[in-house]
Structures are given as structure tokens and as C-alpha cells.
Specification:
With 185 residues, the chain is α+β, with helices and mostly antiparallel strands. The protein contains 3 helices and 6 strands; from the N terminus they run βαβββββαα.
């Protein structure tokens, strides 16, 4: 046996249907979490979409790429074995890959995006709940304390600026003896 790496086996979209259907089913049941790859680090002219799912020591990658020369779309599901070489490092070995048709990829993508959006929404709701927790606590304490007096709302304080008329700066104050009649004479 030679030391050359043997090319992994290839399957077609008919064979891939079994795996795509299972993945979609597991994603829908929230038994499998999908991650979407940040494509900003790749050539946008070829790689259009990339998703990944970890399955213990294995990994499944589903991607959409476009051949920049022919403008032809390609959809692939890739099966990898992640071997732990030593703690903190791993080696990825491609076990097999299969071509998908556009419909299979679209079904998978819609399911994955739905899960990703649901996860983002749940995370945002959690952040909101955590941020408002102290407010909720104060409101609940106020609601339960019947003897507590109403807390008046403070009006926002406006910054006041003293305007000085330069013509009045050196004016002598009026004495009690000076009246309006005196000024009219």
C-alpha cells in the first residue's frame, strides 16, 4: 500500500438525499446545531455559502460555490473525520463527498437559516431579560409594598444659563427713596 492519499469516494444527489433529509430532520428537532461560516475571509467570487455541523469526531460541511470561469453553481456535502493529534489540535480527513442539487441545498439552507435566526432571537431575548432584570425587581418590589408612598418622577433638569445685559453691568441699585414718580419727572 502506498503512502499517497486516496481520493475520497464521491456520491451524487440521489445518494445525498438520505443525508440531507436526516440533517434537516435533526435541525428541525434542535438535535443538531448548524453554524454558518463567515465568508468575509474567503473569495466571494467562488464561495457563496458554507454551513457546518459537528457530529462528535465527525463533521459535515454543506457548501455552495460558483465557478468564476463558467459561472456554474456547485452544491456539495462533505463528510470529515476529525482526528485529535494532541490536545488543542486536530487533523481533518475527508471521508467522502456528494454533490447536491439546488433544491436539496435550498431545503437545507432554509432549515439552517431558520435555526440560526431562532437562536439569535433567543439570545437577544435573553440579553434583554438580563438587562431589564434590575428594573423588573424594583417594579415588583414597588408593586408588592402597599405602604410605600408614591415616588414622584423627577423632571429633567434643564441647564440654565444666566444672561447678562452688558448695558446693565455697572448700574447702581435703586434706593428705597427713588420711586417711579421720581423717574417720570
Amino acid at each position: 500500500m502506498s503512502n499517497l492519499q486516496i481520493n475520497p469516494p464521491i456520491g451524487d444527489s440521489k445518494q445525498a438525499e438520505k443525508y440531507i433529509s436526516q440533517l434537516i430532520d435533526l435541525i428541525t428537532q434542535d438535535k443538531l446545531e448548524i453554524s454558518h461560516t463567515d465568508l468575509s475571509q474567503y473569495d466571494p467570487s467562488s464561495l457563496k455559502d458554507h454551513y457546518r455541523a459537528d457530529l462528535r469526531d465527525y463533521q459535515v460541511e454543506i457548501s455552495h460555490s460558483k465557478n468564476p470561469e463558467t459561472d456554474e453553481d456547485s452544491y456539495v456535502i462533505l463528510f470529515n473525520n476529525l482526528k485529535q493529534i494532541k490536545e488543542g489540535t486536530s487533523q481533518k480527513t475527508i471521508l467522502a463527498y456528494m454533490y447536491l442539487d439546488q433544491t436539496q441545498f435550498e431545503r437545507f439552507k432554509n432549515t439552517a437559516e431558520s435555526q440560526i435566526e431562532k437562536k439569535k432571537k433567543a439570545e437577544e431575548e435573553k440579553r434583554l431579560k438580563e438587562a431589564l432584570s434590575p428594573i423588573d425587581e424594583v417594579l415588583e418590589n414597588l408593586r408588592q409594598d402597599k405602604e410605600l408612598e408614591l415616588i414622584p418622577a423627577e423632571e429633567p433638569k434643564e441647564e440654565t444659563k444666566e444672561v447678562v445685559n452688558p448695558d446693565l453691568v455697572n448700574v447702581t441699585p435703586l434706593e428705597d427713596t427713588q420711586t417711579e414718580a421720581h423717574w417720570n419727572t
